[in-house]
Amino acid sequence: GYDLVVSNHGLVSVGLSLAQRRHGLATPVLTFATETHAISAYWADAEADLILVPNEGVRARLERFGVPRA
């Protein structure tokens, strides 16, 4: 198996998160949000293992979408 999956696309990250919950994918997923401003809600998976963001504005927007601060 793998030690870590790194994703830079919100929809792929959401799919991987669903695979963890529904199908037992045990590999942690690190999401690297590449949007530098006006990030959309599809990046906002509140159950993600970890989401790295490029700046505080993006972090604040994801929090408004329901992603907890790490």
Give the tags.
33% helix; 3-stranded parallel beta sheet; 14% strand; alpha/beta; elongated
How would you characterize this protein structure?
With 70 residues, the chain is of the alpha/beta class. The chain has helices at 10-23, 56-64, and strands spanning 5-7, 29-32, 50-52. The protein has a three-stranded parallel beta sheet, covered by helices on one side. Strand 1, helix 1 (10-23) and strand 2 (29-32) form a beta-alpha-beta unit.
Helix and strand topology:
Elements: E1 5-7, H1 10-23, E2 29-32, E3 50-52, H2 56-64
Parallel strand pairs: 1-2, 2-3
Q: Specify the structural class.
A: alpha/beta
Low-pLDDT sequence parts: none
DSSP strand content: 5-15%
Distance from first to last alpha carbon: 26 Å
H and E order: EHEEH
Q: Main sheet?
A: 3 strands, parallel
Strand order of the largest sheet: 1-2-3
- Compute the gyration radius: what is it? 12 Å
| SS field, number of helical segments | 2
| Share in helix | 25-40%
Sum up the overall morphology in one term: elongated
DSSP strand count = 3
Give the integer mean of the pLDDT values: 93
Provide a short characterization of the protein structure:
The protein has helices at 10-23, 56-64, and strands spanning 5-7, 29-32, 50-52. It has 70 residues and is α/β, with parallel strands linked by helices.
